[in-house]
Amino acid sequence: MTKTIVVKIGTSSLTQPETGQLALSTIATLTETLCYLRHQGHNVILVSSGAVGVGCARLGLTERPKAIALKQAVAAVGQGRLMRIYDDLFSTLEQPIAQVLLTRADLVQRSRYLNAYNTFQELLGLGVIPVVNENDTVAVEELKFGDNDTLSALVASLVEADWLFLLTDVDRLYSADPRTVPDARPISLISNMKELAELQIQTGGQGSQWGTGGMVTKISAARIAIAAGVRTVITQGRFPRNIEKIIQGEAIGTHFQPQPEPTSARKRWIAYGLVPTGKLYLDDGAINAILQAGKSLLAAGIKAVEGEFGNQEAVQLCDRHGNEIARGLVNYNSEDLQKICGCHSRDIAGILGYAGAETVIHRDNLVLI
Ligand SMILES: Nc1ncnc2c1ncn2[C@@H]1O[C@H](COP(=O)(O)OP(=O)(O)O)[C@@H](O)[C@H]1O
Ligand SMILES: N[C@@H](CCC(=O)OP(=O)(O)O)C(=O)O
Fold first, then answer.
1. Residue ranges for the binding site for substrate?
2. Boundary of a domain, candidates 240, 267, 294
């Protein structure tokens, strides 16, 4: 049966740690593996990091630039080279590929989100392997994916993939960073996110010298993907052939089991496509109503409002400590919400001078995180 498989490879796997030069044998084996999967009839999407790393190697820079403008310039140099290498290798195996460079803004607007979906469908229908990266050269700080783990999970969610492989420089997830904690315990399976929270995994710093985000972003990527019904695997990038073995059932890497009832596409867009612009702090009654009874959010349950946002923008719903429990689209802008928070719905018209919506966030526009 045709499966849709998204494979994300990180800079740490694409380059040699000592020199920063490309790990050619890894890239070649990855190419062969993805072509094999295509021949098996599967849809394949590659999310490849490496623009900054390859750009640095090309320009003789020995560390990842911190200044944004320089990083964006370096990415422009590296992305072209990276695609050249992929195109040479895939073309040798007669596999067409396409470059898809996305920015966060492409997924925020619903019409652009759907447009991205349609483009992926067309490419997959044509038998092409899209090679995706963040459009680092034009991405602005406020509106960035920031790391390709998140980007790959959003792509997997967008296309409703069956598998997401996060290829990295460790063989799986451990209870703590195995580089600094030698007796860290390997983890093979995470059945749900509650189990993950109970494991209290330590993720240390921001990852390897060239990587972005380390394990933290892989775990949050897995969270996004499994909510969309995508089985997610963290495994070693140096052995791309393991992807075939894993699909055939071998227990390699760390598997995150998909949620049995995936969140609907529109709610996934609200939760992860949009960028929240404010926070609402709720009282215990409102939290219970949302979590236990699946109710809408009323003004009476809001203790405080943070940030500036317009009507129909996405906000985070938090408990008193600021822990996020849900996200949703608000029916009032922040200015009006400041005036009516804590009030009964019947008093809203009198306070604001117009009869607005009865709910602050309707349950159809509210997603538990
Ligand atoms: N709990 C953990 N289990 C496994 N690896 C971890 C953990 N915490 C931190 N890490 C680190 O995360 C790194 C991988 O992240 P990163 O460097 O961003 O890779 P990539 O370039 O593949 O995205 C590993 O090299 C490892 O040292
Ligand atoms: N878009 C950036 C990669 C960002 C990123 O997440 O890197 P990595 O942690 O190596 O997957 C680039 O191409 O260099």
1. 49, 136, 148
2. 267
1 CA to centre of ligand 2 in angstroms:
32
Residue-level length of the chain: 369
Q: Which of 11, 151, 219 to mutate to test the pocket of ligand 2 (most atoms within 8 A of CB)?
A: 11
- Residue with the smallest CA separation from ligand 2 atom 2 is 49
The set of protein residues with a Cβ atom below 6 angstroms from ligand 1 is 10-13, 168-170, 173-174, 176-179, 201-204, 207-208, 211-215
∠ Cα 359 362 365 (to 5°)? 150
What's the confidence (pLDDT) of residue 193? 84
CB-based contact 329:270 (threshold 8 Å): yes
Tell me if residue 164 falls in helix, strand or coil: strand
Is residue 265's pLDDT more than 70? yes
Share of the chain above pLDDT 70, in %: 97
For residues 141 and 178, membership in a common domain is answered with yes
Identify the domain boundary among 211, 233, 267. Answer: 267
For residue range 136-188, list pLDDT tens digits in order. Answer: 998 877 678 879 999 999 999 999 999 999 999 999 999 999 989 999 999 99
Which CATH number fits the domain that encloses residue 161? 3.40.1160.10
| Residue 262 contacts residue 224 (beta carbons within 8 Å) | no
Structure tokens at 44: 């394949």
Confidence of residue 288 (pLDDT cuts 50, 70, 90): very high
Q: Tell me how many domains the chain contains.
A: 2
Distance 284 CA to ligand 1 centre (A): 37
Best probe residue, ligand 2, of 212, 216, 234 (max atoms within 8 Å of C-beta): 212
Question: Are 183 and 288 part of one and the same domain?
Answer: no
| Ligand located closest to 182 CA | 1
Q: What angle do CA 324, 326, 332 make, to 5 degrees?
A: 105
